[in-house]
Amino acid sequence: AMKTNLFFPTLLAVIIQVMVHGQTPDNQITQVRKTLISTESSIVNVTYTMKSTAAELSNLLKQAKELNITMQSFRNAAKTKKGDEKRELSIEALFFEKQFVLKQIEISELLAKDTYQKLYQNRNYISLLLKTIKNDDYTTNLATNLNSEAEKCIRMAKEMREEAYAQATINAKLGNMTNAEDEEVIALNKQQQVFDIIERVNPKVSIR
Predict the structure, then answer these.
(1) Mind giving me the DSSP string for 31-80?
(2) What is the CA angle 109-48-12, rounded to 5?
(3) Distance of CA 1 to the CA centre of its chain
(4) Is pLDDT of 152 > 80?
(5) What is the DSSP letter of 206?
(6) Measured CA angle at 179 (ends 98, 117), to 5 deg
(7) How far is CA 167 from each of CA 38, 170, 171, rounded to the nearest angstrom?
(8) Torsion over CA of 170, 172, 178 and 179, rounded to 10 degrees?
(9) Phi, psi angle pair for 38, to nearest 5°
(10) pLDDT for the residue 52
(11) 128: closest CA among 32, 188, 202, 51?
(12) Which residues, at least 6 apart from 133, have a Cβ–Cβ distance to it below 8 Å?
């Protein structure tokens, strides 16, 4: 598959952004998106909420950073030694490298929980919004095509995550998960473009 050379922020950045900007004081619920959809007859207020994993995520990131630093210091120490001492230090470095990879897998799994919740909420939301522009063929086509692209990315990402669990090594598993994250970010990005297009042509729709 050819990758489009567009710049997408890392999934991590997207998720943290969502959490930080939408956090309620009890830290349990994150507002993902609040919307007012006006129709001739009524005003529908759509609010999405999801459990916030911000605190848990920040802990895991801190642990990952510490494991990485420990691994590097053992590696650097091994460079200055010879023989048994070098071997011992290298074994330690490998141990911490493994822990570091496992921690990154844990982070990816936690992120996926939030990401898919957001992707699926956006999906419901898009089908609602498409009804508001059903008389506008041009915009409907644009939005529908982008939405199909988003759905394709979601399917690919889910396959990649499933494949990750079939991998023989943890490094390969993490590699699959990282590829899945790329697709998930593109999917979120495409869904956002759908929102932007509908908002632009339909003054009655405000997405904030």
Answers:
(1) EEEEEEEE-SS-EEEEEEEEE--HHHHHHHHHHHHHHHHHHHHHHHHHHT
(2) 35
(3) 20
(4) yes
(5) E
(6) 100
(7) 49, 7, 9
(8) -160
(9) -95, 135
(10) 63
(11) 202
(12) 139, 140, 143, 198, 201, 202
Instruction: Give the helix/strand (H/E) hosting 95.
Output: helix 83-132
Task: Tell which residue, 123, 120, 129, 127, has the closest CA to residue 206.
Answer: 129
**Which is higher by pLDDT, 149 or 37?**
149
Total-model pTM: 0.72
- Which tokens is 18 given? 């969502």
| pLDDT of the residue at 5 | 37
Element (H, E) at 125: helix 83-132
Question: Binning pLDDT at 50, 70 and 90, where does residue 94 land?
Answer: very high
For 29, which DSSP code? E
* 4-62 tens-digit pLDDT: 333 334 444 444 444 444 443 333 333 333 333 333 333 333 444 455 677 888 889 88
For the chain, what is the largest distance between any 2 Cα atoms, rounded to a whole number of angstroms? 81
